[in-house]
Amino acid sequence: MIEVKELSKKFGRRNVLKGVSFTANKGEITCLIGINGVGKTTILNAIMALTPVNGGEILIDGERIHKGSYEKIAFIPDAITMLPQMRIKDAMQFMADFYQSWNQKRANDMLKFFKLDLNDKISTLSKGNTAKVNMLLGLAMDVDYILMDEPFSGIDIFSREQIAEVFTSHLVEDRGVIITTHEINDIEHLIDKAVLLDEGVVLKEFNAEEVRETEGKSVIDVMREVYQA
Ligand SMILES: Nc1ncnc2c1ncn2[C@@H]1O[C@H](COP(=O)(O)OP(=O)(O)OP(=O)(O)O)[C@@H](O)[C@H]1O
């Protein structure tokens, strides 16, 4: 489990995170939801220790996060970090050379799943295919937790559907996934837990399945109630 406890972060004098707490379980998809600028990326960056925080703590499987914890987590940023002149196979080779947790078989499965060509250059890919390569590079790692920043942002409906399908496949099974998004239509039905954020605080954290079953409400219904209250 990833436990985020009372996380606070300031940029200059601005309090971007004001005591954010939530948990994300293994084998579940947890979605951090909130409008642009609410602090979603900052939370992922804090978990990855890419930004210093002003307070709070993060536990992974009960342990305070430390250098070794990062063997358990892969981070998929909202834009691909590979050089545009690389071919897909070069990017995969780079990951294989750099990360012990790289799993070539899983990468090959994803190539097939997304119908990508190893020889294509990243600079020539459509936005949708670039997003798919970005996702492949993270999901191919043998890690317990995957953080994804806005995986659906700015890509066409068909690519979004294909990417959403990944979440119901064996490629994410048994792993803990944290996704950030400001619009959840594509993955509403896939989410196990939703964390609704606003102005640096968690307004509500809930189990989506439970709310569907006990209250007959979708995540979007709850969002309407919470954000329009
Ligand atoms: N390095 C930085 N220096 C100053 N302010 C920053 C920095 N990074 C982020 N911010 C500010 O912190 C706030 C939260 O940013 P963050 O990127 O976490 O939001 P977000 O919810 O992920 O938004 P988006 O959906 O647009 O990605 C924003 O107002 C942003 O301008």
UniProtKB/TrEMBL annotation:
UniProt xrefs under Pfam families: ABC_tran
Highest taxon, organism lineage: Bacteria
InterPro entries: AAA+_ATPase, ABC_transporter-like_ATP-bd, ABC_Transporter_VariousFunc, P-loop_NTPase
Classification via CDD domains: ABC_DR_subfamily_A (cd03230)
Entry keywords, A to Z: ATP-binding, Nucleotide-binding, Transport
Key word ATP-binding present: yes
ABC transporter domain boundaries: 2-224
SMART domains (alphabetical): AAA (SM00382)
Keyword ATP-binding found: yes
Listed GO MF terms: ATP binding
Record protein name field: ABC transporter ATP-binding protein
Source organism of this protein record: Ornithinibacillus xuwenensis
